[in-house]
Amino acid sequence: AGTSRACFLVLLMLVVSTLQFTPRRTRKRYPGKSRVKELCKDRIFNEFFRDQTENCAKVVKCDTSRTGLSTTTCSAPLVFDIDTQICNYEERVNNCDRVNKMPECTEEERDVTKCIPKEEEQNLEIAVEELNLGPECDRSKCILPDCYCSADGTLAPGVEELGLDIKEIPQMITITFNGAVTGENMNIYDRLFNSERVNPNGCSVKGTFYVSHKYTNYSAVQELHRKGHEIGVFSVTNSEEPEYWEKGSYDTWLLEMAGNRQIIEQFADIKDGSVIGVRAPYLKVGGNTQFKMMNDTYFPYDSSITAPLSKVPIWPYTLDYRIPHKCHGNCPNEPWPIWEMPINELDRREDPTFDEELTGCPLVSSCTNIQDKEQFQTLLQHNFERHYLTNRAPLSLAFNPFWLRGDSNKGFVDVFENWMDKILLEYNDVYFVTAFQTISWIINPTSNVNMQGFDEWKEKCTVDGQAACYLPNVCPLRTAELPGETIRLHTCQQCPRRYPWLLDPEGSGN
Fold first, then answer.
1. What is the rounded CA–CA span in Å between residue 313 and residue 307?
2. How far, in whole angstroms, is CA 466 from its chain's centroid?
3. How confident is the model at residue 359 (pLDDT cuts 50, 70, 90)?
4. Which has fewest Cβ within 10 Å: 18, 210, 315, 441?
5. Pairing relation of β-strands 277-278 and 301-302?
6. Whether pLDDT at 397 is above 60
């Protein structure tokens, strides 16, 4: 009887505890649903807005997901521009304190503090600004290999000069990465640039790496160079200070970019003079000052200027004449004998057949609406077709490497690899090449049928064997310019006394 009574008491306690806790769980669910219902009332589906104003990088949108509300957070140092609906650099975003996207201006409402001007009105303003951007292209004087331009930037090289048909021009795709090269990033690069993934000419696919100094593993940079990838400069400090780049002095650009090259050449053991390309951090162009420094120190090309999304993309050009498209920021307006590899903005529409108004994004990693593998696949394929089926201007796929390895983007590398394999299998006129290889083709336009013999793309065609820097020195270093920090420098060269920095690129400590 005692045992029966004990069992009954245990059962009773379980029932009571269940009765106590069940309502508590139920009550916990409904405030979230109520909040979503309230937030999404009368809102446009899939349009981002802020549900708070403390974190400018974080936004939400109402959609058909399980919860009805999806959250997106821009990767640092980007914040979210609620009007253009993309991640951008903080100094270019002036709506962090605003919750909703501003409506387009109408006949009744033309106050630009309350609405966004229509595109044609913006074009009028830009036309006035461009009065000081130098002479228009003169193709009778601008002749390859030293100069290239066209009135609107869309003319393919070789079409007028050699009578090439667009279908005879190879489609070039440049995969570029900005920032430090680390061991973690190398795992991604080894997958994407697998030696068995080859272009139609039999050479392995190649990429371009604009390397910033801090935290970079120089043994990894040496290996990328050994395999035939291009190494460019991205600065020593990668400074996030407002206006540091756009209004930087000549000495700032010299120390940052020429100093960056000196560090790369010394500690990655690159002695062939191939570090010749510049990309400005956060794509903050430094105007004539930047290009004077480049001209003085032999940086023959830049890849920092963004070409806004348009129906026909822009081909690379020299800066002998005015820039043939809208240029935001501190753009050069004097002639320079320097090539520009413009970054054509990507069309990020989830359904390219639906003609909704969306701004483009310069970096793949700044396309905030790319949330899953299917959207990433659509972005890649649609933008490839935009270039391939129009004027075959080089397709720029630019990344901050952390975007591909972020927890929220798991599986994106698989999608990228599969897409590259699909392109190489289906097309015999598409090449994954470096930025400088692209310029090499423009200087010497060659038809698809003759690309097997195009020597400019044959250097380091396929590279096998053991890494040149297999067991690097790991040097724990400090510098007076970074007080309190100890940074490990990986290099097969002798460890310097100090961590290399702006005023001491050799790390001598003097």
1. 8
2. 30
3. confident
4. 18
5. parallel
6. yes
Position 155, amino acid: L
Tokens of 459: 């250097």
C-alpha closest to that of 410 among 382, 371, 369, 362: 371
d(CA 62, CA 50): 11
Rounded to the nearest 5 degrees, what angle is found at the Cα of 188, between the Cα atoms of 423 and 222? 110
Could you tell me where the DSSP H helices lie in 40-94?
none
Q: For residue 30, give the DSSP letter.
A: H
* Phi, psi (rounded to 5 degrees) for 404: -75, -25
| Mean pLDDT, rounded, of the chain | 87
Specify which residues 343 forms β-bridges with: 306
The whole-angstrom separation of Cα 208 and Cα 275 is 11
Q: Say what the pTM is.
A: 0.79
Cα–Cα distance for residue pair 171/35, rounded to 1 Å: 49
Question: Which of 67-76, 162-171, 371-380, 418-427 has the weakest average pLDDT?
Answer: 67-76
Helix (H) or strand (E) holding 187: helix 183-192
Residue 219 burial (C-beta neighbours within 10 Å; 0-12, 13-18, 19+): buried
Q: Name residue, tokens 């919750």.
A: 99
What does the alpha-carbon distance between residue 162 and residue 156 come to, in Å, rounded to a whole number?
Answer: 11
C-beta separation of 240 from 277 below 8 A:
no
